[in-house]
Each structure stands twice: as structure tokens, then as C-alpha cells.
Amino acid sequence: STDGNTFAAVGRVVAAGTTTQAQHYAFGYHPPQPGLGYYRLRQVDLDGTSHYSPVVAVRTGAAAVAVFPSVFDQALMVRLPAAGSTALSVLASDGRVLHQQQLADSPAQELAVPGVATLPPGLYLLRVVLDGQASLHRV
Known about the structure:
single chain; 139 residues; mainly beta; Immunoglobulin-like; 3-stranded antiparallel sheet; T9SS type A sorting domain-containing protein
């Protein structure tokens, strides 16, 4: 939503069904333009009733982190715009975390993302968190 009142669906994730074990879900979304956006989740139960999460505001700007190349086989690089605490996570298209790396005080530089050379061909997401600001990149 752009106003926090009128919402439109941007995607759907199918539930795992009834289970006694904790389930983790992920969904990647790239807003069409930078700025302030409002988001909420709608959970639909098996009986058809639905519940909404609280609304959260997310401010996005121009991409500060660069990831290249977009198609890779042996190496994937990340260009950080500033020094700071950095976390890198490689995610499968279903949201599973395949690799994570924490860098305490990474300088503003280009970094090779470890663990990608052994991945089979497919769609992956790279989550970069730099000083608490997260960005998600399709690779």
C-alpha cells in the first residue's frame, strides 16, 4: 500500500498445512519504486477465515548494494557502499537459508559471496544486511 489503507496482493505463499512443528516462510518482493510503502500479511486458515498482521512501514531508496554478475557459476560479488556490520545470506527460491556469513566491520569494498560455487543452477536470493538495512537481490 502507498497510503497504509488500501492494500493489494503482491504474492502468495502456500502453507505447509496443519503441523505441530514451527514452520518458516519467506517471500521476496521488489517495490516498483523507491519511497515509503506499507505492508501487512493475510493468513487464511483451513476453514476459510482470515487474519491480518499489524501494518508495517518500509522506506526503500535507490539500491545501495550492488550484486554482480546476475548470472553466476563460480563467483558472486557484492559491492558495499559503506563500511559497517554486514550479514550475507544465500536463500533458495523457497526461502531456505543455504549459506550465511557475518562480517563484523566490513570495509566499503567488493566481497566474494562464499558458498555459491557448489550450488546447482537455479534461482537464488541474496539477502544483504548492512548496519541494519536489509536488501534482497535475485541472482
